[in-house]
Write a structure and sequence with these properties.
Blueprint lengths: L5 H29 L2 H13 L8 H6 L2 H4 L3 E4 L1 E2 L4 E2 L5 E4 L6 H13 L1 H4 L3 E5 L5 E5 L8 H10 L5 H11 L5 H41 L4 H10 L1 H19 L9 H5 L15 E2 L2 E2 H6 L3 H9 L4 H11 L2 H18 L33 H12 L5 H16 L3 H17 L8
Helix pairs in contact: 1-9, 1-10, 1-11, 1-16, 1-19, 2-9, 5-7, 5-9, 9-18, 11-19
């Protein structure tokens, strides 16, 4: 029986799905940004955390606080899933998608402490001319911020929120820094639960996105397995890149492993630059400006738009999320193309090869291989004469769709473990 290095096949497949699952993450994040899912969930969670039916609406006060308003931004409305700016330039307020634990603690302390001022009674004075003037009935107490926080708690009606804050206050040893630290731990513990809720919501959506990516890129799992088992040269190239990516991934911190841009940085394969121009300034593409910012001045001079407004507009386009997402997606497909990973549509692969005009035609040069086994396999599968051929193709697409939806961190972690196993064992020989 032919000696096939099964571990290398598995490593190459896991590498491919780790690479392509980044596309799922990119699309998922784009849709989440467009629908404000992260910010809305964060706001709902904080409103629930600070809910108090017996006192003030602390959740609403929290989001109206200057510290939170300062990180609330105005954003242009987008159409076509956020990829194309709406020509109406209709703006809306975006709730923050991230609030640090430090900022949360500062705002909560401020809200409770300010209740001391809110409780002050106002005295009304009327002079002989009938004019009214207002003043505090008693002077403001000279208290520290920590003491005002305690005084603010005493002014609240008994409630679950008050009891929680009172417990944190009593464990602070009279120090504001300890109180803020307790509030930060309380917030972080709650955010861990919120993160779980968010991931559950995203996972349901990822299934449909994974299927869409598999269908749009023609990622047939059964076809990939067959090609990787037949083409030793391609397999060796993919495994080599997988080992580099796994090594780079292992050096990333836990938080960096959740960042799509950091995951992309683990790959070393060069790829063609993005050719499509979605927007341009003075005839120079936005992506060229990203590669060489010095061209910005030349582009503005060429179009005679060297004003502060036009420069700000250019920088906004350059830094837009849509441009970043497209650039990252281009890098993923560029890496796949540089490695000759057998995905995508062409007349030399199913399902386009089943069309009458392409049926039975296999061009070795177009397949980027001279491997006889791969050519024979493609010639047989491209005929589409076997009854189970169509069923296998649909099954392969479904398998890819569901596996891609698992998420990039899962595939990268699995790739790292498989590469460690491979390095510990004997390197299999490759038969050409």
């Amino acid at each position: 029986m032919m000696n096939i290095p099964f571990l290398d096949i598995i490593v190459s497949l896991v590498f491919i799905y780790a690479l392509l699952s980044i596309l799922v993450s990119i699309v998922n994040e784009m849709l989440s940004y467009y629908n404000e899912e992260r910010g809305i969930l964060l706001k709902d969670s904080i409103l629930k955390l600070l809910a108090d039916d017996l006192n003030l609406q602390y959740g609403e006060l929290f989001y109206n606080h200057p510290e939170i308003q300062r990180i609330t931004q105005l954003s242009r409305r987008f159409s076509f899933f956020g990829l194309v700016p709406n020509p109406t330039n209709n703006q809306k307020k975006l709730v923050p998608s991230y609030i640090s634990a430090e900022r949360f603690a500062v705002v909560v302390v401020d809200l409770i402490a300010n209740q001391v001022h809110m409780a002050q009674k106002i005295a009304v004075h009327v002079d002989g001319a009938g004019k009214k003037s207002f003043s505090l009935s008693e002077p403001l107490p000279d208290l520290s911020l920590f003491e005002r926080f305690g005084k603010g708690l005493s002014l609240m009606q008994p409630s679950p929120l008050r009891d929680t804050l009172l417990g944190l206050y009593e464990r602070s040893d009279g120090q504001l820094s300890h109180l803020e630290l307790h509030l930060q731990h309380w917030f972080n513990d709650y955010m861990e639960c919120v993160t779980g809720w968010y991931k559950t919501r995203q996972q349901k959506k990822s299934v449909f996105i994974g299927l869409a990516v598999a269908l749009l890129l023609n990622v047939d799992a059964l076809h990939l397995i067959k090609i990787m088992s037949l083409d030793g040269t391609l397999r060796a190239k993919v495994v080599q890149e997988a080992m580099v990516a796994a090594g780079n991934y292992q050096r990333l911190s836990y938080s960096a492993r959740q960042d799509v841009a950091q995951l992309l940085s683990t790959f070393s394969t060069s790829h063609p630059q993005f050719k499509r121009i979605r927007d341009s300034i003075g005839g120079t593409s936005v992506y060229a400006l990203q590669q060489d910012p010095s061209q910005l001045v030349k582009a503005l001079q060429k179009k005679k738009e060297a004003t502060l407004d036009s420069m700000a507009h250019c920088l906004a386009i350059q830094d837009s999320l849509a441009d970043t997402a497209i650039a990252m997606a281009d890098r993923v497909t560029g890496i796949a193309g540089a490695l000759n990973i057998p995905i995508g549509y062409s007349q030399n692969s199913a399902p386009w090869s089943w069309l009458p005009a392409n049926k039975g035609k296999v061009v070795a040069a177009a397949l980027n291989t001279a491997n006889a086994g791969v050519l024979v396999y493609n010639e047989r599968s491209n005929k589409g004469d076997e009854p189970c051929t169509y069923t296998k193709y649909v099954l392969g697409i479904l398998i890819s769709g569901f596996t891609l939806s698992v998420g990039a961190p899962f595939w990268f972690n699995l790739l790292m473990k498989l590469v460690d196993i491979r390095r510990a064992g004997i390197k299999p020989s490759i038969k050409k």
